[in-house]
Amino acid sequence: MKAVDVEYIVVHCSDSPQGRGDNAETIHRWHLEKGWDGIGYHRVVLENGAVEHGRPLYWVGAHASGINSKSVGICLIGDGAFTLQQWSALRGLILDLLKKFPRAKVVGHNYFDSNKDCPCFDVGAWWAD
User: Fold this and answer.
1) In the annotation, is 8 catalytic?
2) N- to C-terminal Cα distance for the chain?
3) What is the pLDDT of residues 47-103, one digit of tens each?
4) Domain 3-123 annotated CATH 3.40.80.10
5) Where along the chain do its domains lie?
6) How buried is residue 102: exposed, middle or buried, by Cβ count under 10 Å (0-12/13-18/19+)?
7) Catalytic residue among 41, 63, 75, 120
8) How distant is the alpha carbon of residue 4 from its chain centre?
9) Strand, helix or coil at 107?
10) What does pTM read for this prediction?
11) Strands 105-108 and 51-53, sheet pairing
């Protein structure tokens, strides 16, 4: 995807139990089992704050219906009880992505679908803070 095409950086959560050790490979397997082309997110933030690569940034994601062609997807491992390391890594990751995609607005998955809790916090308020 070209920088001018990316309008959103969309934050998600895996909605999986904390401490289970899920990672990008786990999500890749889940998405393959659904018949998808593999992991739909571009980056995954582990509980220890490590950031793993999912889809390459040049490949359109599969993480938010209707806006995949104009967004980058980030997934936090967990179901809302994120670690301090995850918060710090998420902030740094978004800052790095904004250097590549300066027009992008930082939002949560629930910004596009109010019936979803994902990512279990108000991304807009968090980012503004």
Assistant:
1) no
2) 28
3) 999 999 999 999 999 999 999 999 999 999 999 999 999 999 999 999 999 999 999
4) yes
5) 3-123
6) exposed
7) 41
8) 19
9) strand
10) 0.95
11) unpaired
